[in-house]
Design a protein that fits this description.
single chain; 232 residues; alpha/beta; eight-stranded parallel β-sheet; binds pyridoxal-5'-phosphate
């Protein structure tokens, strides 16, 4: 933790942020899309609070974290000071962390199994405002990654909607690192379209240009904004 919060000069962030936004605009123009249809999620995992606050000061408001515990320790205070911030959970959610997750996250992108969906449905009846939900699809069917396999996506989405009455807003995926990303992004797009889901969270620092071409509405960008992450 102390390492994570170590002081680090933040002047690079503004420059990186500008570059990322230019890259987004370029891809948006090429795809003849509207910039307003795309949200940039600044992935702040392993980033110190002062670097996050630097980006907030520039005017950014949408962030992503992959661990509930880390998010809680960093964001409770920041969100109190900046109630308009939207925080996305982009990492796996353990069922014993659901209460904490509901207290801090505005969007949970990683519904990836039936047991989690059932418990979430139960818990959100107890909170004043339910977050938005996305289903994570394991487009590459990698055993190392979580997510619903593509062939099970239809029945899982319908189960969440019809049986559990969860408001599923969209889908997210993390394609395999060493594969052409296009086929994964287009698969996610197809599944979302079939179910009339509006949100597509796909594209990271190295491939968000491609993701925009395939219809991404949410880009999860970490290193291109903050630079390399500190390792714990
Ligand atoms: C860390 C992370 C990102 C950001 O990755 P970068 O390559 O740093 O942009 C995006 N999505 C998920 C799920 C992540 O865990």
């Amino acid at each position: 933790m102390s390492k994570m919060l170590a002081n680090k000069d933040s002047s690079d962030i503004q420059e990186n942020y500008k570059k990322v936004n230019n890259r987004i605009q370029e891809a948006v123009d090429k795809a003849s899309r509207n910039r307003s249809s795309i949200r940039l999620i600044a992935v702040s995992k392993n980033q110190a609070v002062d670097r996050i606050e630097h980006l907030i000061k520039i005017g950014h408001r949408v962030f992503g974290e992959n661990r509930v515990q880390e998010a809680k320790s960093k964001w409770l205070n920041i969100k109190k000071k900046n109630p308009d911030i939207r925080l996305h959970l982009i990492g796996p959610l353990q069922t014993n962390k659901i209460k904490d997750a509901l207290a801090i996250f505005d969007v949970i992108e990683t519904i990836d199994r039936e047991r989690l969906a059932i418990k979430l449905a139960r818990e959100i009846s107890l909170v004043p405002k339910a977050p938005d939900f996305l289903v994570q699809i394991n487009t590459g069917k990698e055993s190392s990654k979580s997510g619903i396999y593509p062939e099970e996506a239809d029945s899982f989405i319908i189960f969440c909607q019809k049986e559990l009455h969860l408001h599923i807003k969209g889908l997210m995926c993390i394609p395999p690192i060493n594969e052409e990303k296009s086929s994964h992004f287009s698969l996610l797009y197809k599944i979302a379209k079939k179910h009339s889901l509006r949100y597509l969270s796909m594209g990271m620092s190295s491939d968000f240009d491609t993701a925009i071409r395939f219809g991404a509405t949410h880009l999860r960008v970490g290193t291109a904004i903050f630079g390399a992450r500190d390792q714990f």
